[in-house]
Write a structure and sequence with these properties.
Largest sheet: none
CATH architecture of one domain: Orthogonal Bundle
Order of helices and strands: HHHHHHHH
Radius of gyration: 22 Å
Oligomer: single chain
Low-confidence stretches: none
CATH class of one domain: Mainly Alpha
Number of helices: 8
Mean pLDDT: 87
Shape: flat
Structural class: mainly alpha
Distance between the termini: 50 Å
Number of strands: 0
CATH superfamily of one domain: MetI-like
C-alpha cells in the first residue's frame, strides 16, 4: 500500500476523496429527504380508509423493496433517457441522445427505493401513537390540524427516529451504486484512482474507512437526536 498517493494537490488523491465524500453526503442527504416525502405520502395512503389507496401503497412498497437498487438505477437512467428522447423526437424532431443529470438520477433512484422503507417506518410510528391521546385531544376540542401538529406528528416522529436512522444508512451506502452512471462520489473516486495508479487496495481501503467514518458519525448523530426526542418520556 502506498498512502503517499493520498496526499493533496496534483500529486495526490486526498482532495479528490474529500470532494467525493462531499458528493456522497449531498446525494445521501437529498435522497433521505426525498424518501421521507415518499414515505409520508405512501404511509398516508396505506392508512387511508379508501380501498384503492392502501392497494397503491402496497404495490409501491412491495415493488421497490423487491427490486434491486442497481436495477432501479439502470431503468431510470436508460429508460428515462429513452422516454425523453421519444418525446423530443415526436414534438420537436430531435434525433440526438439525451442524458439525464446524474446527480438528479442518483437522488431520485435512491430516494424512491428508500421511500419504500420509510413508508413502513412512518406507518408503524403512526400506529404506535396511543389512540387514547388522540381521543383525549378530540375530547377537549382540538381540531384535526391541531391534533395532527401537536399530538400525532411529535409522537410519531419520536417513534420513527430510530428506524429512520437505518433508512439514512441505507441511503448512505447506496450512493456507491451511483458510480456506475459516472457520478464522482467516494466509490467512483476510488475506482478512478485505482485504475490510474494500479494501487487498487490503497484506494478501496480508503473508501472503506471513509464510509465507516460517515456511518459512525451518523450513528452518533441519530443517538443524540433520539436522546433529545426522548427527554421527559418515561422509559419502559
Amino acid at each position: 500500500m502506498d498512502f503517499s498517493l493520498l496526499g493533496w494537490g496534483d500529486a495526490g488523491w486526498g482532495d479528490e476523496f474529500l470532494r467525493g465524500m462531499a458528493m456522497t453526503l449531498a446525494v445521501a442527504t437529498c435522497a433521505f429527504l426525498l424518501s421521507i416525502v415518499f414515505g409520508t405520502f405512501f404511509a398516508s395512503a396505506k392508512l387511508s380508509r379508501y380501498r384503492l389507496l392502501p392497494l397503491l401503497g402496497d404495490i409501491y412498497t412491495t415493488m421497490l423493496r423487491g427490486i434491486p437498487e442497481l436495477l432501479v438505477i439502470y431503468l431510470v437512467f436508460f429508460g428515462g433517457g429513452s422516454v425523453l428522447r421519444s418525446i423530443a423526437t415526436s414534438l420537436f424532431g430531435f434525433e440526438g441522445y439525451i442524458d439525464l443529470p446524474v446527480f438528479a438520477t442518483g437522488v431520485l433512484c435512491i430516494g424512491v427505493s428508500a421511500g419504500a422503507y420509510s413508508t413502513e417506518v412512518i406507518r408503524g410510528a403512526v400506529l404506535a401513537v396511543p389512540k387514547g391521546e388522540i381521543e383525549a385531544a378530540r375530547a377537549i376540542g382540538m381540531g384535526t390540524v391541531l391534533r395532527f401538529r401537536r399530538i400525532l406528528v411529535p409522537q410519531a416522529a419520536r417513534y420513527a427516529l430510530p428506524a429512520m436512522g437505518n433508512v439514512w444508512q441505507f441511503c448512505l451506502k447506496e450512493t456507491a451504486l451511483i458510480s456506475i452512471v459516472s457520478l464522482v462520489e467516494i466509490m467512483r473516486t476510488a475506482a478512478l484512482g485505482a485504475a490510474s495508479t494500479k494501487e487498487p487496495f490503497t484506494f478501496y481501503i480508503t473508501a472503506f474507512f471513509l464510509f465507516l467514518f460517515l456511518a459512525s458519525i451518523s450513528n452518533r448523530g441519530f443517538r443524540i437526536a433520539e436522546d433529545w426526542a426522548g427527554k421527559g418520556v418515561r422509559r419502559q
